[in-house]
Write a structure and sequence with these properties.
231 residues, alpha+beta, 3-stranded antiparallel β-sheet, 9 helices, 24% strand, globular
């Protein structure tokens, strides 16, 4: 409860909402209280195998509004019409969480365990933010959201679930949650290797002009995609 955590430490509630790990929060508070400044900031990152509160998007009503929020330029990413998945890997153990922090149904994600080691050959431990959707193996085109829900291991002979990775929160013992998106993206690009139609890096471009963003919005809507996510 917020009022209890507020009594423990001014940042305890926010730290719990981020990490969803009450034990880690309390341990950190005890550590801070034993130091010279009992109300010092709680520096807490992601914990492996414990779902992290996902960052959610806000609706952007216009190109002008986008550039007001991000005057120095924007990362523009296709909004995939799939299911948000947070993937945790510790050695050979995998866990997958939904945007509501619940386990994802196994038939949607179980086969990624054989592809993630190929996609991230140096990744012993990691937390990835991604979107899962069905992809046509003949054309590479994403299929509508509903096809994922009825996929049961053999429902589509010409389509497979694909993991489109767009963020990295934790990598080989290092927490990346407080790093800028630019650095996290550079990390992903340096590490990931596309694995056929099973694991891919999300499409992202840097936009510095309003006309660029207008053209991108027009293109994705013409392709029948949901829109863009701008960061």
């Amino acid at each position: 409860a917020k009022h209890i955590l507020d009594g423990v430490h001014p940042e305890a509630y926010e730290a719990f909402n981020t990490t969803r790990n009450i034990v880690a929060v309390v341990d950190k508070v005890i550590e801070v209280r034993s130091g010279p400044n009992p109300k010092a900031a709680l520096q807490l990152g992601a914990s492996l195998m414990q779902p992290v509160q996902p960052m959610l998007a806000q609706a952007c009503k216009s190109v002008e509004m986008a550039f007001q929020k991000c005057p120095n330029g924007i990362f523009s990413e296709i909004k995939y019409d799939g299911e948000r998945v947070q993937l945790h890997k510790r050695g050979k153990e995998f866990k997958y969480f939904s945007r509501s922090l619940k386990p994802v149904m196994a038939h949607k994600v179980k086969h990624f365990a054989e592809h993630i080691p190929s996609a991230f050959p140096t990744g012993a431990d990691l937390i990835l933010d991604a979107e899962v959707l069905m992809v046509d193996v003949n054309t590479g085109a994403p299929l509508p959201f509903g096809t994922l829900g009825i996929h049961k291991g053999g429902g589509f002979k010409d389509a497979v679930p694909c993991l489109f990775v767009f963020d990295c929160l934790f990598y080989n013992g290092e927490n990346w949650m407080e790093k800028p998106i630019k650095e996290r993206r550079q990390l992903l690009e340096s590490l990931i290797k596309d694995v056929g139609h099973n694991v891919k890096l999300s499409e992202l471009t840097k936009v510095t002009r309003k006309s660029q963003l207008v053209e991108q919005i027009k293109t994705v809507l013409e392709q029948g995609l949901e829109g863009l996510v701008i960061k």
